[in-house]
Amino acid sequence: MKKQTIKEILQDYKKVLHHDITVYGWVRTFRANRFIALNDGSTINNLQIVVDFENFDEEIINKISTASSLKIVGEVVESQGAGQDVEILAKKITILGDNFTEERDKTILQPKKHTLETLREQAHLRFRTNLFGAVFRVRHAVSFAVHAFFNQNQFFYINTPVITGADAEGAGEMFGVTNFDLNNIPRDEQGDIDFSQDFFGKKTNLTVSGQLEGETAAMGLGRIYTFGPTFRAENSNTTRHLAEFWMIEPEVAFNNLEDNIDLAEDFLKYVIQYVLDNCKDDLDFLDKRFAEEQKTKAEKERAKEGLIEKLQNVVAKRFKRVSYTEAIEILLNSKENKKGKFQYPVEKWGTDLQSEHERYLVEKHFESPVVLFDYPKEIKAFYMKLNDDNKTVAAMDVLFPGIGEIIGGSEREARLDVLKQKMADMHVDEHELWWYLDTRKFGSVPHAGFGLGLERLVLFVTGMTNIRDVIPFPRTPKNAEF
User: Fold this and answer.
1) Quaternary arrangement and interactors, per the entry (predicted)?
2) 71 is in which domain, residue-wise?
3) Contact indicator for 125, 119 with CB cutoff of 8 Å
4) 388 and 465: one domain?
């Protein structure tokens, strides 16, 4: 008989009621030498084990403590106490792993005994807490829903390179990849590093995006998406930045900007609804935590709705679609801008919007998710389609409450001559991207796509406030532990 998880037992306990079963897990609490709260990570809910200590060796009882791992054989019975439907009357207890820590160190795994900052320093133990168990089960559900959505809509999953010679963003904030002995780097006659002698024979980096390679696949497969790690060497120690994170990037042949916006809205609503449908216990826990956290904030800074209510509203409401030009007018005329309350004042058309501007539009002005489109060409990437006004590009950003930008995308520039001119204007090397230009020579078609940072979405769905708390092992400046 296969091992059952605690989640399975609690969901279908009537099938095993009054039968002996075997369960495995870690001790969350052990009260009065009689009640063990056992958890195996499959659910936020614990399974209560009732121990008649007179039937067990005292040495075994003394070894049971928070974080001990146990194998327990016992009878499933209806619970006499409040808080659970069933419990197990223990008949045999095997200690699989003792907790060898000193008493003062055991608090790291006990609720209300630790801060999030402390747990970031103990990231290998975060999974053992209720909070991070919930967060990472939700992260799994989000990831699964991503694949399910695209599979149902006939997209093909493509793996794009982690090591690349292309800079998709043109920002230059990339981690270099080399096989050189750093104490003996070869140089050419001009004294520059001679990358021709390196492993790949050229300068290479960790990717910031799989988009450009994804476009090549879409030109033959029609609908594709990538889902993989990306890297930014940006020296930002903020609650919103990571050096290593996961990106989802669909690319669709024959789609225009409006199609792209429709896809983004459908996609986000599908994933959030999946989490609402399949993570109820974890969301209930996170919702209560979110509410408690709001009480600690000044009244004007508190969220207007609870976590679950916020998610339900995003699914229910049609996203407001607003041109960049209209958004600038709204911001220019806002009380916040006129009274100097924005950290970055909005002074004119062409301003690159900051998170505070995006959140104002979503949370104060429209009170719904917003899609901004048709941005000034100067503040967007070379590959975005130039509009007929020659001033804007067919770009789109999806803005969410509490987050700001959660998706960025565009219709791509499919015209070879226009693309080459834009690359020249933005100093993007044609020779490095000869293969990308080739996709415009062999049956070029209108196409569009977007990028979504997985961690940004998990941050939104869980109600967490620091992006380092929604990835198992965060990589940030001066921090690459574990």
Assistant:
1) Homodimer.
2) 6-102
3) yes
4) yes
